[in-house]
Amino acid sequence: VQEQAILLGFGGAKDAVVTKTAPAGWVVDNSGMNGLGDPATDGVVEWAGWSFANREWWSSTAGDQTRTQFKKGTGTVAIADSDEWDDVTHAAGDMRTLMTTKEFDVATAPAGTAYLKFNSSWRPEEPQKANITVKYDGGAEVEVLRFESINSSPYYKDDSSVNDTLVIPLNNPAGAKKAVLTFGYFETRNNWWWAVDNLAVVSESAGGGEIKLTASKTGT
Predict the structure, then answer these.
(1) Quick one: which H or E segment has residue 133?
(2) Helix (H, G, I), strand (E, B), or coil: what is residue 68?
(3) What is the spatial distance between Cα 145 and Cα 123, in angstroms, rounded to a whole number?
(4) Using the 8-state DSSP alphabet, how is residue 162 labeled?
(5) Could you give the C-alpha distances from 113 to 40, 106, 110, 172, 213, in angstroms and in order?
(6) How many CB atoms lie within 10 A of CB 69?
């Protein structure tokens, strides 16, 4: 495996600490949340949108509720937790938070060979939803993953999903050079959470192995 770049470093949060500061080059967009920025209207400030926290600290201070089962999350993880956010009064409306990676290189990946691998913790409750989109070379966003909480939905992600490893095709087109990923968590208020960690983008090599295009670097 050839490592070519580091994509993600959730290194901002130390033991028993949560931070709202995203990794360098990443952007968290909470513009879809009403009342943000005013402690009187934005709910539990630490959990208003995507946050970065020590996984064990998060699961213990949030009252467990199966959060401790996210054993594949190590050190600092990225967390969107509407259940915790809603524990304090906030402005009317749901949580809608987007987390976008810094741009990374996919030029060495042949068309259709790039995949996202990551660890994920999700508990469904209506109407909570989540998705991942990819954008190549500044083009249109394309959805590559979607979770929904209604069990009749084709995108339903069930309640046994608190400690997953997922592999998602990114469908990279021929000639693509750069990409960004966006993790969305939306239409949720006092539902549950989505947490992610250990992200890596890989490409299948001609010999059947993998070339690691980008990789996560977990914080402490």
Answers:
(1) strand 129-136
(2) helix
(3) 16
(4) S
(5) 48, 10, 6, 7, 11
(6) 15
* Euclidean distance between CA atoms 49 and 130, whole angstroms: 13
Q: Do the beta carbons of residue 48 and residue 42 sit within 8 Å?
A: yes
Pair 115, 169: CB distance under 8 Å: yes
- Six-digit token string for 23: 């990794």
d(CA 114, CA 167): 10
pLDDT tens for each residue of the chain, 220 residues long: 222 223 344 544 444 578 888 888 899 999 988 888 787 788 888 899 999 999 998 988 888 999 999 999 988 899 999 999 988 888 888 999 999 999 999 998 999 999 999 999 999 999 999 999 999 999 999 999 999 999 999 999 999 999 999 999 999 999 999 999 999 999 999 999 999 999 999 987 655 566 667 655 433 3
